[in-house]
Amino acid sequence: MKFGPIAIEEAEGAVLAHATTAGEKRFRKAHRLSAEDISTLKQAGIVQVVAAVLSPDDLGEDAAAQRIAEGMRFSGIEVRPAATGRVNLHAKASGIFTVDAGMIDAINAVDPAITIATLAQHAPVEKGQMVATVKIIPFAVASTLVDTVMGICAGGEIFAVNAYRPARVGVIQTVLPGIKPSVLDKTLRVTEARLARSGGRLTAERRTPHEIAPLAEAAASLARDNDLVVIFGASAMSDFADVVPAAIERAGGTVVRAGMPVDPGNLLVLGTLGGKRIIGAPGCARSPKENGFDWVLDRLVAGLDVTAKDIAGMGVGGLLMEIPTRPQPREPLPARSRLKVAIVLLAAGRSSRMGGPNKLMALFDGKPLVRRTAERALASKASGTIVVTGHQRERVRAALAGLDVTFADNPDFADGLSTSLKAGIAYLPEDTAGAMIVLGDMPGVVSGDLDRLIDAFRRAGGNSVVRASHQGKRGNPVLLPRALFPAIAHLEGDTGARHLVEAEGLDVIDVEIGEGASVDVDTREALEGAGGVLQD
């Protein structure tokens, strides 16, 4: 492949490196130029373009990425169609991700043109979540390089999502004088929530004195009828011969490992009893926050073995402390009501269909449309409003003077909607659970409509896409959960939230808000019909 400036007379079949405008027509980046395109560019006075010219043995970026993805061996994962040189792979079910790091490293060492990125080893994933992505960096790559990668892929399974297997779990809680029943009851609720994410269920509970003999008897009883037994000791393990490990051995079991290099979670005990796994849970497992207990529990219910060597190898990355790395089981409704939703208001477009005037400056009841939209956003339940500017950015900023909004400038606005989405999402605080994408040109959407979307998002626990609708037809705004933010970073061109929702396969909740969901003002006639007055 050759890349660089090329005379327009020689550019037929070449792939544009940058978006190019010729009169009223705009050619997107990565567009392959036809004879008709060359004629249009010549008429506009363009004498050369920066482009890529493919050799006969080159594979286009999409074809190369698709071939590599389809040549991999994996399980529990589906391949999405190639776009802009990228193929994303998603989990078919919730489970634990495993990967052959050596194969990934070998592929990435073939040539910088070919890359593959994955989640971390043993990362927990939800159904539909992206677990890996293949990306071709240039517009094309030599087929010989792809052949080399295919040879590596033939060496075995490269990664997998090990689906959770709904487990029957028995729980034992030992008791000492002074321990409150409310603590024991809360421990059960937290444990049930942990099991729920994998489809497991708590089948029985025993409460015994914190002594070896009664604990051993209860453990042997529960192991007969359950897939897994979890022991919550009233007192933390202080020695490898303490009550919990000693009771496992008294019951006829074996202690695989006592203690783990994960904090919180140091005092976990793992054993086997009657062919079943038994876990002495550390005290931190009474809390919903992630700890070493989650790592062991999730692997076991995903059908993966956990050995003493495995636990010994958890030290790197095992300093968890207060770092939230995945969705946690939480107390039911109060936490949901506090989920933060921010609004990303898109105000960077050129209003090209208006034929000149900026529609966002049109007056509605004497006020610029963009200001009225921003005021409605600020009056909603949203935690904050990010305004993405681009075309006539200073004019838009002036129209919003005095409002408590954050501006995110998008210098690449002419390259399409995806650039504005990425610019807005980049400004969101770390504790934002969802982003509502609000178009600046929808005069019929009011604060109450935005609140209905936010309420639906919170009721769903912050894990679903919430979309405005009218008479059963999808519309705008759209509220995206945080799980989609990484995927937004991979969007290119004039691709927006609708494409993302369809591609990622998350649950979608449609909320009827009336005609406002479908009324935009892309044309002069539509704007005037909605009551707007265009300004120069």
Number of helices: 17
The first-to-last residue Cα distance is 47 Å
Task: Give the radius of gyration.
Answer: 28 Å
> What does the average pLDDT come to?
89
Number of strands: 30
Give the spatial strand order of the biggest sheet: 26-25-22-27-29-28-30
Beta-strand share of residues: 25-35%
Largest sheet: 7 strands, mixed
Shape: flat
Estimated helix fraction:
25-40%
Low-confidence stretches: 323-328, 330-334
Structural class: alpha/beta
Protein name: Molybdopterin-binding/glycosyltransferase family 2 protein
Pfam family, one: NTP_transf_3
Keywords: Magnesium
Sum this structure up briefly:
This protein has 536 residues and is of the alpha/beta class.
Topology:
Elements: E1 2-7, E2 15-16, E3 20-22, E4 25-27, H1 35-43, E5 48-53, E6 58-60, H2 61-71, E7 73-75, E8 77-79, E9 86-91, E10 95-99, H3 101-108, E11 114-118, E12 124-125, E13 130-136, E14 140-142, H4 143-153, E15 157-163, E16 168-175, H5 181-196, E17 201-209, H6 212-225, E18 228-232, H7 243-250, E19 254-258, E20 269-273, E21 276-281, H8 292-301, H9 308-312, H10 332-337, E22 340-347, E23 363-364, E24 367-368, H11 369-378, E25 384-389, H12 393-399, E26 406-409, H13 417-425, E27 432-439, H14 447-459, E28 465-470, E29 473-481, H15 485-488, H16 497-504, E30 508-512, H17 524-529
